[in-house]
Design brief:
Largest sheet: 6 strands, mixed
Strand content: 15-25%
Structural class: alpha+beta
Number of helices: 13
Radius of gyration: 23 Å
Distance between the termini: 57 Å
Low-confidence stretches: 1-36
Mean pLDDT: 90
Number of domains: 3
């Protein structure tokens, strides 16, 4: 890997092949795109270009190869620019991936110009990082098909950056839409369970079995600060938001059950899953952060089996857990304030102030980074709610999906109103919510930003007071 590529990689970390010479067979238009679609910054998305189907045109694979062979050394901008003339907009996915790692400079400019030539869409002026996001937002919104051999090209590029991602590509039957997968700016967390290594190589280190104190021992945490509360078999625990923002993943024992708890800061989504009932022959699961994203949602994986997950849905996408058809069982996570949570659960425990790592956590590690909308590509957005609206999401056993806007639901409950839709009702728990069906059975729920809930649960209805 060249010094230049390593330098680019280090800068990005700090800031957060099939070949077929047969001609294309038919021409279509990317499905489901209207002129009035908008992306997460409310820019109008232009119509999708005509898209060929079938194999790549003659000679295109030969044009791609010089670019891919030199990514780790010195890539010739002329080779990148040549891809703009191939007449197949599907190649734009390769330009998007290239821009993620080689933003700015002659190569980045050539990739941006090639994208415009391929698609007819102008890329708004802005920083190099903005160009990558703008291009990828368009490709996702258009649902642009990937070119033949795309997974192979992506594997070669991504494993050059992080060899630890190789097992995710090795499952040829994996259920991964590689178009949506991008790099989150960090490397894979592959530390063994309980390892206190701060992950100096550039990963986000999970917090395993943190020490806890009783509520009185949590006086260090402000009453108005956010916690993510979990209750299992009568045992409650609060996970402070400032600690979760640093680790983004916890493996813990609560109520005599093992749980894994990913926190996608980009999605405003703290979730929890039981991890102590894996398929036969597999030990208790250990969840870790991969360093990859899927439409701005963190991609987690299980360390022992190297199985990749759809974090939002808890579905195994690759590896032995995918082969077993495994889906994690969700647990309700209540987003509350520490003062309200401990009042509702006086016997609660809370993660110790130093997380058992003898460090001091900042009060606000991210400094409001996600307050103004997604910072990674998500494509077009569901216009029914503003993208960063916090919603309480519920999926019933028979597949009904409901989103309750959290602020409106809180106002209604505080006024004594019933908050209910499709047989699902919300009730207060501290400053947060729990969901129940008509028979009083609890349904797992958690809060997230609307853009994330609606893109991973596109059939969702929205409750209105």
């Amino acid at each position: 890997m060249s010094i230049r590529f390593l330098a680019v990689l280090a800068l990005l970390v700090a800031s957060c092949s099939a070949e077929n010479d047969a001609p294309p067979s038919t021409t279509t238009t990317a499905a489901g795109v209207a002129d009035t679609l908008v992306d997460s910054d409310e820019r109008v998305i232009p119509p999708a270009p005509d898209v060929p189907t079938g194999p790549l045109p003659d000679g295109v694979a030969e044009l791609i190869e010089p670019v891919w062979q030199t990514i780790g050394t010195v890539t010739d901008p002329a080779d990148v620019a040549a891809l703009g003339a191939v007449g197949d907009p599907r190649i734009a996915w390769l330009l998007s991936d290239l821009l993620r790692f080689l933003q700015g400079g002659p190569v980045g400019d050539a990739a941006t110009e090639a994208f415009t030539e391929l698609t007819g869409a102008e890329v708004p002026a802005g920083s190099p990082g903005w160009q990558w996001r703008a291009i990828t937002d368009l490709l996702i919104a258009w649902d642009m098909p990937a070119p033949p051999g795309y997974a192979g090209y992506k594997e070669r590029l991504f494993t050059l950056v992080e060899p630890g991602w190789q097992p995710f590509f090795d499952d040829a039957a994996g259920d991964v839409d590689w178009r949506w997968v991008s790099w989150g700016g960090v490397l894979i967390d592959d530390r063994p369970l309980g390892d206190l290594d701060p992950c100096s190589r550039g990963c986000i280190p999970a917090l395993d079995d943190p020490p806890v104190t009783d509520a009185a021992g949590g006086s260090w945490y402000p009453d108005e600060a956010i916690v993510f509360g979990v209750t299992i078999d009568g045992e409650s625990r609060a996970y402070p938001k400032n600690i979760m923002e640093v680790h983004e993943m916890v493996n813990d024992t609560l109520g005599d059950r093992r749980i894994g708890m990913p926190y996608c800061t980009l999605c405003g989504s703290s979730q929890a899953f039981f991890t102590d009932e894996p398929p036969s022959g597999i030990n208790t699961l250990v969840l870790r952060t991969s360093g990859l994203l899927s439409r701005s949602n963190k991609v987690m994986y299980e360390m022992q089996t190297q199985s990749m997950f759809d974090t939002f849905l808890g579905v195994a996408l690759t590896g032995p857990l995918r082969e077993a058809g495994y889906t994690l069982e969700p647990v309700t996570v209540v987003t509350s304030t520490w003062g309200e949570w401990k009042q509702a659960h006086p016997e609660t425990t809370i993660v110790a102030q130093d997380g058992g790592r003898d460090i001091t956590y900042p009060d606000d590690p991210l400094g409001g980074r996600d307050d103004n909308g997604p910072i990674f590509p998500v494509g077009d957005v569901d216009p029914r709610l503003p993208v960063q609206t916090s919603v309480v999401g519920v999926v019933t056993p028979d597949g009904v999906v409901i989103a309750f806007p959290a602020e409106a639901a809180r106002t209604a409950l505080d006024a004594g109103a019933v908050v209910s839709s499709s047989g699902v009702s919300l009730s207060s728990d501290g400053g947060g919510f729990r969901a129940y069906d008509a028979q009083g059975n609890e349904l797992p729920t958690h809060q997230s930003f609307w853009f994330a809930w609606s893109q991973f649960q596109p059939t969702t209805t929205v409750w209105a007071p």
